Amino acid sequence: MTSSLPAADGDRSVDVIVVGAGPGGSATAAWLAKAGKDVVLLEKSRFPRDKICGDGLTPRAVRQLINLGIPLSETDGWAHNKGLRIIGGGMRLQLDWPDVTSFPGYGMVRARQDLDEVLARHAASCGAELLEGRNVSEPIRDESGRIVGVTAKVVDERGKATGERETYRAPVVVAADGVSSRLSVKMGREKREDRPMAVAVRAYYETPRHDDEYLESHLELWSTTPEGGRILMPGYGWLFGLGDGRSNIGLGVLNTSEAFGRTDYKDVMRRWVETMPAEWGINEGTITGEITAAALPMAFNRQPLYADGLMLVGDSGGMVNPFNGEGIDYALEAGHAAAETIVQALARPTAADRERVLVSYIGRMKDMHGGYFTLGAQFAKLIGKPEIMRLATKYGLPRQTLMKFMLKLMANLPEEKGGGLDDRLVQLMTKVAPNA
């Protein structure tokens, strides 16, 4: 089915335009194409391209990749892992991923330079038209202000504009264009300041720890003073092995921390790396690129998630878990929900009927994650205070039963129906919490 919207000379008319070929955009396009829709997926860069990220995939994200039909064996380039190792307060605790039927029992790591291209090519193989080097610059609106298309500047392999412009029209446009989401901003949807934000800093290092079977999280980042003492720095750190000779090593700092915005995060990263054991081989000589940083938008920090023909998916809608900074799984889930909503809307006979279905995406996403994100936002406020973080680390880590529950809560991996007492407690907490 093609759009009934009138197209000017040179315009392309399709069912759905998806802007941004990250995990959320590619998942949306793949599901739409599987449903037989004429969808164009516009990506401003050309693959392969990088995205600043921890590269870790919990079982929640793995479930979505399985649903999409992505081959996930280690011979296909995926590093599998068994769970999470937590280090802090002089303690070292190793926890397997929860054994539940709702999610697979393993996580993975894949560099975003590979992951995003795999997902985008998969969307194309499902029937979506993937167009790289299309930098969407402006929305096209009708008399009512509703978005009915976009204009894109064509970009060459060096990232330079060629001077060529293309125009696409569709009854629905999906913004999956990242944390800054220029398309959302031009449609009047600014970020909400009452939601937590974080900065993620990461680099790749060659290290013999590249094939670690567990993701590793450091709840304390220590450095040394010129006098030889120790100093606790803001944030938490991670080491995620990619299985290819490298590990993704990084740190996150929440805006609930007093140090947020007043810290040279790259310097914090360097100082933390300097304290790592020599046998890990993680130092300035084994870094394989620059230390880079990016913002993490959390807890639906841009709303509404749908209005005036524009639907938000992934980072553009602030779909990052405040408990742990995960965003890939929520982007993939939103892509599936967005596609299902759009398919149902396009099948309705009148514009009013279609709009009513499209608006339902807001409630669907709030029902899925609104209460959970609210809990996470409160958690982010607490751990932003160093004294609370130290107490939680000191008294929480020695209690393995508590930490198993916290892993299930923070990674959002409860049995979705029924389960044990801990599963039902997570379900209850997310239900009674107000929607983000």
From TrEMBL:
NCBIfam families: GG-red-SF (TIGR02032). Residues 14-346 form the FAD-binding domain. InterPro entries: FAD-bd (IPR002938), FAD/NAD-bd_sf (IPR036188), Geranylgeranyl_Rdtase_fam (IPR011777), Geranylgeranyl_reductase (IPR050407). The lineage of its organism: Bacteria, Bacillati, Actinomycetota, Actinomycetes, Micrococcales. It comes from Janibacter limosus. It holds the Pfam family FAD_binding_3. Gene3D superfamilies: FAD/NAD(P)-binding domain. It comes from the Bacteria. GO terms for molecular function: FAD binding; oxidoreductase activity, acting on the CH-CH group of donors, NAD or NADP as acceptor. This is Geranylgeranyl reductase family protein.
